[in-house]
Design brief:
The protein is of the alpha+beta class and about 70 residues long. The chain contains two helices and two strands.
């Protein structure tokens, strides 16, 4: 397990996935205000690290119409 901490830039997540050849990436948040950054991170993961699987966890709900929930 590699904990990157809080307020991590999407690019830093991608760099860590590549550096450690991560197969699984976990993202967690408790505030809906973080959803846009998580959406950006997931889009970059899909583009830059297509073999990595990811899991989002948090409050268990998203804002209505949120594109991240459809990923």
């Amino acid at each position: 397990v590699i904990d990157l901490g809080k307020d991590v830039k999407p690019e830093d997540v991608i760099d860590a996935v590549k550096k450690h050849d991560a197969k699984i990436v976990g993202l967690s948040a408790l505030m809906t205000t973080t959803v846009p950054a998580m959406e950006e991170t997931v889009m970059l993961l899909k583009k830059e690290c297509p073999k990595a699987r990811f899991r989002y966890d948090g409050q268990g709900r998203c804002l209505p119409g949120c594109a991240f929930c459809r990923l």
